[in-house]
Structures are given as structure tokens and as C-alpha cells.
Amino acid sequence: MLAVIIPALNEEETIVSVIRSTAEQLKRLNIQEFQVLVADNGSSDATAHLAQEAGATVIEAETRGYGSACLAGLAKNPYPDGIVCFLDADGADDPRDFEALLAPILAGDMDMVVGSRILGEHQGWVSPGALTPVQSWGNRLSGFLLSRTWGVSFTDLGPFRAITAKALQSLEMDDKNWGWTIQMQARAARKGLRVCEIPVHYRVRQGGQSKISGTLKGSIAAGVVILKTYAQSIFWCPNP
Ligand SMILES: Nc1nc2c(ncn2[C@@H]2O[C@H](COP(=O)(O)OP(=O)(O)O)[C@@H](O)[C@H]2O)c(=O)[nH]1
Ligand SMILES: [Mg+2]
């Protein structure tokens, strides 16, 4: 009933522990029926091989990009009536937060729950250096824009999130890159879905190299894409 989609690009140092601790946490929560889908789009290292050995289903995404990998994983979701979770492959998200993330959906109270690293930070949970200042302020700004536009309460565009497969399908997601997270939140808000966020732990990546926030150029480029996706979402016409 639960699909966990992990977009991964050259994450051989961390992918195995992310898959193992995900499976461990889900079993601890008594969730027996789940599938871990690693969406790899052309890693040149051993990511795909190691992910498969660790028990995940590996999906080859044809086009580069974070959203593109998430879409490729989603296309192979075996549970169309279940729940879909996303988390990163670098070990920055903590699978121990699955419990808090899933609880409101399992209780039937929410359609989507986003893990906020900013809320975690306020409680001293974010390791120093895990979120760069540019990332932190960029995400806060995005949350502010979403809140002002649709009256939802978001502080972050965190990658670790859970949503019912049905709700996700209704959002007609199509962003192929770094607009993926804001597109999901903006469209969910625009559609009037039941959404909330919870504080999550966030760590420095556990190995390998950052593809985005590690450089100022990467952060600015992602910021521009995120703002553009927000603006496009205002004009999105959902199917009734
Ligand atoms: N499949 C795929 N995954 C990507 C791509 N770019 C980044 N990722 C993954 O997306 C996640 C977030 O990227 P990361 O480099 O950690 O960004 P940061 O946290 O801002 O430094 C990681 O799991 C990456 O492996 C991409 O083009 N394709
Ligand atoms: Mg990361």
C-alpha cells in the first residue's frame, strides 16, 4: 500500500543505507506492504546496482532532472489506491520521521504531509550546515508565497513528504526538475486538498556530492525555476 520513491543521481555512498533504514522503519511501523522505487537517471557510479542489491526496484528515468526521476518512479507505482512517499537518496532525510509523516494520512485526516526542515530547525533538529542560508531563506520565501496566495501554512519545500496516490494523480504533476516540490504544494493548495507540514530531522548529506545547494550558482538556478513554477501554478486549471 506504500510506494517510496527515491530520486537518485550518483549516490553510491548513501543509497544502501537510505533503502535499508527506510525498510527498517516501515517494518517497525507494521507496514508490510511497501515497495522502494529508486528512480535513477543515468548514474555513472554503482547507484543502480547497489540499490537493486539492497532490495529496491530500480527505474531508469530517461530525462535528467529531479522531477523527471520522481515522475518515472510514479509511473511504476504499484499501489494506485495507496500512499506515495518521496525522500532523497543522500541520507539527509531521516527515515525515522516516516512515523510522524504518515500518521495524519493513515488516520484519514490529511491528503498530503510535507516534512518541514525549517520547523525542525527551530527546535534545534537540523544539523549545522545541513541547510545553507540561501536554501533556508529561499524555502521560507516559497512558503510565504504559498501561504499568501492560497492561505495554506507552509514553511518549507522539503523533499521528504507523503501523499495519497489518488491526491497526487489529481495534481497532474509535470515538472521535470527542481520545480517538483513547489508544484506539488501549490497545486495541492489550489485544489483545496487537506495539507499540513510536520517538523522533520535534516542532516548534512551522508556522503557523495550535492547536485544543487552545494554551489551558489546551483541554488540560484533552482530558485529561479521554483519561482517560475510558483507563478505558473497560479494559472493552472485543475480538472474538476
Ligand atoms: N534521478 C535524479 N536525481 C537527482 C537529480 N539531481 C539530483 N537528484 C537527487 O535528488 C536528491 C537531491 O539532490 P541533492 O544533490 O542532495 O541536492 P541538495 O540537497 O540541495 O544538495 C538526491 O537524492 C539526488 O541524488 C537528477 O537529475 N536525477
Ligand atoms: Mg541533499
Describe the model.
The mean pLDDT is 93. The protein has helices at 15-28, 47-53, 66-74, 98-106, 117-122, 133-150, 165-170, 180-191, 216-234, and strands at 2-8, 34-40, 57-60, 83-86, 112-116, 161-164, 195-199. The protein has one domain (2-234): Spore Coat Polysaccharide Biosynthesis Protein SpsA, Chain A (Alpha-Beta Complex). The protein is built from 9 helices and 7 strands, in the order βαβαβαβαβααβααβα. The chain is an alpha/beta fold and 240 residues long. Guanosine-5'-diphosphate (GDP) binds next to β1, β2 and α3.
How are the elements arranged and paired?
Layout: E1 2-8, H1 15-28, E2 34-40, H2 47-53, E3 57-60, H3 66-74, E4 83-86, H4 98-106, E5 112-116, H5 117-122, H6 133-150, E6 161-164, H7 165-170, H8 180-191, E7 195-199, H9 216-234
Parallel strand pairs: 1-2, 1-4, 2-3, 5-7
Antiparallel strand pairs: 4-6, 5-6
Give me the number of helical elements: 9
Query: Any idea of the CATH topology?
Result: Spore Coat Polysaccharide Biosynthesis Protein SpsA, Chain A
How does CATH name the architecture? Alpha-Beta Complex
Helix percentage range: 40-55%
Write the element-wise H/E pattern from the N-terminal end onward: EHEHEHEHEHHEHHEH
Radius of gyration: 16 Å
Query: What is the number of strand segments?
Result: 7
- Secondary structure category: alpha/beta
Average pLDDT, all residues? 93
Widest β-sheet, arrangement of strands: 3-2-1-4-6-5-7
Taken as a percent bin, the fraction of beta residues is 15-25%
The CATH C-level name is Alpha Beta
Whole-Å distance between the termini?
Answer: 26 Å
Q: Which molecules other than protein and nucleic acid are bound?
A: guanosine-5'-diphosphate, magnesium ion
> What shape does the CA trace take?
globular
